[in-house]
Specification:
The complex is a heterodimer of chains A (490) and B (431). Chain A has 490 residues and is mainly α. Chain A contains 26 helices and eight strands. In chain A, strand 6 and strand 7 form a beta hairpin. The longest helix of chain A is centred in the C-terminal third of the chain and has 17 residues. Chain B has 431 residues and is α/β, with parallel strands linked by helices. The chains are: A mainly alpha (490), B alpha/beta (431).
């Protein structure tokens, strides 16, 4: 069983980083040509398939075969970086990133402020009573066209972490605001993020803090704040949940600026002239002493957050989740602890954590290569950008459900599962069907000449290589590329 | 049926091969899993074993989010209930459907009540486990794996598939209906199971040509996910072929409807999922272990209407399912069992709801069940330190009875130990 790295540039064994000067895509391709393997990916496969079969078998550690990691080369690391933090690239964007090199690309990704999506007109509908598909398409449209796709990847990450769903939030304007808030806070610090999360109107509804009062607190938010958002189980007691619930009482939904008739309901529902967060009502709040996470005294919401940030479990918990999302499905405890230390020392700064994650040796380790499965949204937006089609938001919004990912509607408060959980008999059919539908809708397709190099790093299994070689038209080659196992991975 | 056996045996070789590759994938994923035995030895084992030969079927219905046991099986005569639940208790007691002087079913469980009247509903009261966790995810995992110590990673039904059935030859032996991913209870890296969200959409656009191309594309895929992908594609293709046959020969004999008005609408189409389950059962696809889910039970707020609506939805879907099976002459083979990660707190909260609780009743429905109340209702006066009901019956006692008495599997091999006997089956099969 052979796996077939194509250009020699991507084939070289891991070596110390080359001098900081990057390589252009053109140079990478030229290197491939120089190595005598061909010009374009497809012709190259056609000409060299037999050779590749015989020459480049890379056995994994005792368990069948593994992908031959190309991450020893900087260009492959840049492509993996873009695959994991953006939604793919045009040839020009890839050129620019290759020319900047890995570290400058990391800087640019992390330091460029997020581009705001255009305002969603429907969000002014009284009571937020507009179809959720409008919200979904609005976000997907932005994913397809934004100049700062990493902001959308981070927003999606936080959407799956600080979950809310539109059903229980019962106001799609609140869900819209949450999306705007998560994007703006995505690369800030955990302390201010947790205050924004706690007082977010959709969250106040989703985890019932809006109806929790001192005389009879609701434990839902207190529990999930510690279990799912910051610390994980085993690091607090049931008494901490109860005492935390007391300390967190007092929040209410924001007061509307007025009401107006809501279409189709025959009722007047709230309208807001601007985005708002929850309001604190002292009369509903518990003001006496609590004992929470080892601290006894009066505690307000900021105090609760600060107690959580003072726990040793918090930084590694977030670091582990980030590492699992961007680096490897099973990060080692030493990696997690190292990231956690860096995160905590930076006063929980997300840019510091993200830089540490992306520039870690683990990110470039061969075991990291293709160790993550693209989520359905990632897959669909990547595929659309690969074929240069920015008109697919309707299809993408509809197709996510059968693959297990509907935006603004995570399966439960734990958010979406990842990696192997994305793979079942149902989801693989839906993934393939999406590719078929997207290609059928595309008015024209770009040349597939470089697709195997650009989209698949030029590292393909024998089956994919064989099918690419057999394909006689652009549509089939794009189908094989985008439906391939290689493209499902990141 | 006879020609399908032939088809299955023909395909079996492909699946054994997939099983081999699958083993390689499992080893690659080993970090979080216990040591995976040698793949070849496992394939030989799968090829050798006969598996269970009876044709009994199990359908597990997950009530996700933590079902309120006190609103499902209502204590009719306990005055404490009104003190603990001033907002929630009144109407639920007044409207309950009495089973005896002490207990009644939720007023929206009329269909299940009529099955009770025919002796086809067993209710095990006070089901739980020691030192309960109040985390959804931990408790779901405990119920799914059947292991409160949280060491086991495979699901109890997944282990049953792997140990007692030859699922590698028959991907429809275990099936999750109405889902997109494999539910934890069915998960086991050594078994094959299928997942069908919506039968109408289950198939490759472009038909057999695309199917063949994809089959060629996903063969010997490298990497840690390679075997998982290849097996999923092979399972999908096999399942598509089976559904092509089954859908032409099945006519539903009951009115399944998902057009229910829920205050907080559920994400699961329970009736459609059970209709698919019925199709798979009555057309003789060889399905043994089915899993469906109804979400929305995490009733921290405005529980009154939401929980009643969920009960009504459950009742109509289960009633249609039973009626359909009976009309097709299969009701004697199928045991339906509900499960939920926990019950809810006896004392209500300020949001008109209830927080996470512990012990709760579990319903076993169908001809194989021996109607009646089992276990014992936990006391409202003797709550644990968290204000929750103490359990009387370990949930694994129920699993043990299902595995041994209904499926004829070696429950001790699957659960790792023996538990108290709960005698809720009419005619337990001999193991």
């Amino acid at each position: 069983m052979a796996v077939a790295p194509i250009p020699s540039d991507l084939e070289s064994p891991p070596t110390p980083d080359p001098p900081k000067r990057g390589v252009t895509r053109r140079q990478a391709l030229a290197a491939a040509v120089a190595a005598g393997v061909g010009v374009g990916a497809v012709r190259l496969l056609g000409g060299a398939l037999q050779n590749l079969n015989h020459t480049t078998t890379t056995a994994g550690a005792g368990s069948g075969t593994d992908w031959a990691s190309p991450l020893g080369s900087e260009s492959a690391r840049v492509m993996q970086l873009l695959r994991r933090t953006t939604f793919g690239y045009t040839p020009a964007q890839l050129d620019a990133a290759l020319s900047d090199g890995f570290s400058r690309t990391v800087d640019r990704l992390i330091e460029t402020p997020p581009a705001e999506p255009p305002a969603l007109v429907a969000a002014s509908t009284p009571g937020g009573r507009f179809a959720v598909v409008q919200l979904q398409q609005w976000w997907i449209d932005h994913m397809l066209s934004t100049p700062t796709p990493i902001a959308e990847r981070m927003t999606l990450f936080w959407h799956g972490h600080f979950t809310s769903d539109y059903r229980k939030a019962a106001d799609n304007t609140f869900m819209y605001w949450q999306n705007l808030t998560w994007r703006r806070m995505a690369m800030t610090d955990l302390r201010s993020m947790l205050m924004k999360v706690t007082t977010d109107p959709a969250m106040l509804r989703y985890l019932d803090l809006a109806t929790s009062v001192a005389s009879s607190p609701n434990e839902n938010y207190s529990r999930e704040l510690m279990e799912l958002f910051t610390m994980g189980t085993g690091n607090y007691t049931e008494e901490d949940v109860r005492q935390g619930a007391l300390a967190l009482t007092g929040w209410q939904l924001p007061r509307p600026d007025g009401t107006a008739p809501a279409p189709g309901t025959g009722r007047n529902l709230p309208v807001y002239t601007s985005q708002k967060s929850g309001v604190f009502n002292r009369r509903r709040a518990y003001s006496a002493t609590v004992t929470f996470l080892g601290h006894t005294g009066t505690l307000d919401t900021q105090g609760v957050v600060d107690r959580i940030l003072a726990q040793n479990a918090t930084a590694p918990f977030i670091a582990s989740k980030v590492a699992q999302h961007f680096v490897t499905s099973r990060p080692s405890s030493s990696f997690v602890n190292r990231l956690g230390d860096t995160f905590r020392r930076s006063r929980y700064d997300m840019k510091t954590l993200m830089r540490a994650v992306l520039t870690s040796p683990e990110f470039a380790d061969p075991s990291s290569y293709r160790s993550l499965v693209k989520s359905p949204i990632e897959l669909m937006v990547h595929a659309s950008r690969a074929i240069g089609d920015s008109q697919l938001s309707r299809l993408i919004a509809a197709a996510g459900s059968g693959m297990g990912q509907t935006l603004f509607d995570p399966p439960d408060v734990g958010g979406w599962p990842n990696n192997e959980s994305w793979i079942s008999s149902n989801t693989v059919i839906e993934r393939v069907n999406f590719v078929t539908a997207a290609l059928a809708q595309a008015k024209s397709l770009p040349s597939s000449r470089d697709a195997a190099v650009h989209q698949l790093d030029g590292v393909v299994g024998t089956q994919t290589a064989a099918l690419l070689n057999q394909a006689t038209d652009e549509g089939t080659r794009w189908f094989v590329t985008l439906a391939s196992p290689e493209f499902q991975l990141k | 049926m006879s020609d399908q056996v032939g088809i299955n045996q023909l395909k079996r070789r492909d699946f054994l091969r997939a099983g081999l590759v699958f083993g390689a994938g499992a080893a690659g994923l080993a970090a979080g899993y216990a040591a995976v035995p040698d793949a070849f030895a496992r394939a030989v084992y799968a090829a050798k074993q006969e598996g269970i030969t009876n044709d009994n079927v199990l359908v597990m219905i997950q009530l996700a989010g933590g079902n309120d046991g006190l609103r499902t099986l209502v204590p009719l005569a306990d005055p404490l209930l009104h003190d603990l639940r001033p907002q929630l208790a009144g109407s639920m007691v007044a409207r309950a459907l009495p089973l005896n002087n002490q207990y009644g079913l939720n007023h929206n469980l009329g269909g299940i009540k009529s099955l009770w009247d025919k002796g086809k509903v067993a209710i095990v009261q006070g089901v739980g486990y020691p030192n309960p966790t109040f985390s959804h995810f931990e408790s779901i995992r405990i119920w799914e794996t059947g292991d409160p110590t949280r060491r086991q990673v495979d699901g109890w039904l997944g282990r049953t598939l792997a140990q007692a059935y030859d699922s590698n030859g028959h991907p429809l032996t275990g099936c999750a209906c109405g889902a997109t991913d494999v539910p934890g209870a069915l998960r086991d890296l050594q078994a094959t199971m299928t997942v069908i969200q919506d039968q109408k959409k289950f198939g490759f656009t472009g038909g057999r040509e695309v199917e063949a191309a994809v089959g060629a594309l996903y063969k010997g895929t490298p990497g840690i996910y390679g075997a998982l992908f290849d097996t999923a594609i092979a399972t999908a293709t096999e399942t598509v072929a089976t559904l092509r046959t089954s859908s032409t020969s099945y006519v539903p004999m009951a009115d399944y409807s998902d057009k229910v008005k829920l205050v907080y609408s559920s994400k699961n189409q329970l009736a459609a999922a059970l209709q698919l389950a019925a199709e798979l059962i009555v057309t003789g696809t060889g399905v043994k272990l089915l899993h469906v889910t109804l979400g929305g039970f995490d009733t921290h707020y405005t529980e009154l209407n939401r929980h009643d609506d969920l009960m009504g939805y459950l009742d109509s879907a289960v009633s249609a399912f039973y009626q359909d099976l009976a009309a097709h002459g299969k009701a004697d083979k199928v045991l339906i069992a509900t499960w939920s990660e926990f019950g809810r707190r006896p004392k209500e909260n300020a949001s008109g709801g209830t927080d996470h609780g512990a012990a709760a009743p579990l319903l076993l429905i169908g001809d194989p069940a021996k109607g009646g109340l089992y276990g014992s209702e936990p006391s409202l006066t003797d709550l644990d330190t968290t204000g929750n009901l103490k359990y009387a019956v370990d949930f694994r006692s129920v699993y043990q009875e299902i595995l041994g008495g209904h499926l004829g599997a070696d429950s001790k091999a699957i659960l790792g130990e023996s538990f108290d006997h709960v005698d809720f089956l009419r005619t337990p099969v001999a193991v």
